[in-house]
Amino acid sequence: MDRSEEFQELRPLLFSIAYRLLGSVSEAEDAVQETWLRFATSPTRPESVKAFLSATVSRIAIDVLRSARVRREEYVGPWFPEPLLADPYEDPQRAAELADSLSMAALLLLERLSPLERAVFVLREVFGFGFPEIASAVGRSEAACRQLAVRARRHVDAGRPRFEADRAKRDELAGRFLDAFRNGDVGALTSLLAADVQMIGDAGGKAPQWVERFTGAGAVAGVLATLMPMFARIGAQVAVHPVNGQPGAIFRDRDGGLISIWAFDIADGVVQTIRTVSNPDKLGHLAPVADAWAALREAGN
């Protein structure tokens, strides 16, 4: 097997590592491409190609993450990861870790960690790498990596998101919620919301701020009641689709252009959080994006 074939075989793993470190599809793809360039031009063949590539993509992602933190502090409004509709990497032995770490809530929790803590946590807890490999990837001793892992795990455990254990129940409830939204049934929507539900939107200053931050079933139901007729006037179509491994929805205009992606956190038989992403810079990797400002003008007529 030549280098290109070896790299392509490991590409899904490399992307999955980079995405969990960066929360950005475009930045993760760039990190993977840079990893390939370094591998292709390396004068020697590494003893373990998987270890070499995983370490390389991790180091690149750590550097990007350090600079990204400054940009995120200047971001307009709430910041969310770029939505991912499907994870290209699968490992049956680590399916639970991979699924839990992909959710919007989990990625936002990882944002609280330092870049090194995040890298150590992702490589150890999500992908099951040994500490010798992790030490090589992050440029720290094994002892230091173990300390970083303990600190990171403590932070994550303190804020770990809760999800409905039964995935089928999650999907069924999300389907009922979106049916109620399509039908304009505010009562049914309200009954599916937690008392302290949050609805938060990421538009990044580049799309209409349909939602910013609302808390409580009454407030969120009111926002949804306002959005329902607006979306109907522009012929918006909503399709149920997993988003970052959790129930979600894709909103398109009548021409099929993406308007927004919604992700739901569901636990205890109700919706706990609704996160919406409408920043076009975060949607372009999924499909052509609608002109949301034109849609807003049409909805106002």
UniProtKB/TrEMBL annotation:
Keyword Zinc recorded: no
InterPro entries, per the entry: ECF_Sigma-70_Domain (IPR052704), NTF2-like_dom_sf (IPR032710), RNA_pol_sigma-70_dom (IPR014284), RNA_pol_sigma-70_ECF (IPR014303), RNA_pol_sigma70_r2 (IPR007627), RNA_pol_sigma70_r4_t2 (IPR013249), RNA_pol_sigma_r2 (IPR013325), RNA_pol_sigma_r3/r4-like (IPR013324)
Stretches assigned to the RNA polymerase sigma factor 70 region 4 type domain: 105-155
Stretches assigned to the RNA polymerase sigma-70 region domain: 7-69
Pfam families: Sigma70_r2, Sigma70_r4_2
UniProt signal peptide: none
Keywords: Sigma factor, Transcription, Transcription regulation
Superkingdom assignment: Bacteria
Keyword Isomerase: no
Subunit annotation: Interacts transiently with the RNA polymerase catalytic core formed by RpoA, RpoB, RpoC and RpoZ (2 alpha, 1 beta, 1 beta' and 1 omega subunit) to form the RNA polymerase holoenzyme that can initiate transcription.
Recorded family membership: Belongs to the sigma-70 factor family. ECF subfamily.
Annotated NCBIfam families: PRK09636.1 (NF007214), sigma70-ECF (TIGR02937), SigX4 (TIGR02957)
Protein name, entry field: RNA polymerase sigma-70 factor
UniProt organism field: Amycolatopsis tucumanensis
